[in-house]
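Narrative of accomplishments. A recurring question from our advisory board has been how the design workflow behaves on a single, concrete structure rather than in aggregate. To address it, we present the structure tokens for one chain from the evaluation set, followed by the sequence designed for it. No filtering or post-editing was applied between the two.
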């Protein structure tokens, strides 16, 4: 994925999350904006990693000197770690979201992304 495409995904993700969390004020708003930045970056990176795993496969052939074996694709390993972190960030956003939106927009958003 090219940097321009990744930046476009980040920008779109920030816009969607800010729409959902737009009613927050004060410290909650500042905290939400930090989470939004992290979530948007992680989502774009997850898209990039997913593209790489789709192209190379979940396991790759590894050769280093006399050592030869199949191993988990490093991109798949990173994806698995990051998806958990992304889900946690989205859940943190849910914790600071007003009740009405928490059950509707944010949870629908998370379901779309998984």
């Amino acid at each position: 994925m090219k940097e321009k495409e990744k930046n476009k995904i980040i920008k779109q993700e920030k816009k969607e999350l800010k729409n959902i969390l737009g009613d927050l004020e004060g410290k909650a708003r500042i905290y939400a904006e930090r989470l939004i930045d992290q979530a948007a970056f992680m989502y774009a990176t997850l898209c990039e990693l997913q593209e790489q795993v789709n192209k190379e496969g979940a396991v790759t052939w590894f050769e280093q000197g006399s050592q030869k074996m199949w191993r988990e694709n490093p991109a798949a390993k990173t994806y698995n770690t990051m998806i958990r972190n992304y889900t946690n960030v989205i859940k943190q956003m849910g914790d600071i979201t007003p009740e009405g939106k928490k059950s509707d927009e944010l949870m629908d958003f998370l379901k779309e992304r998984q």
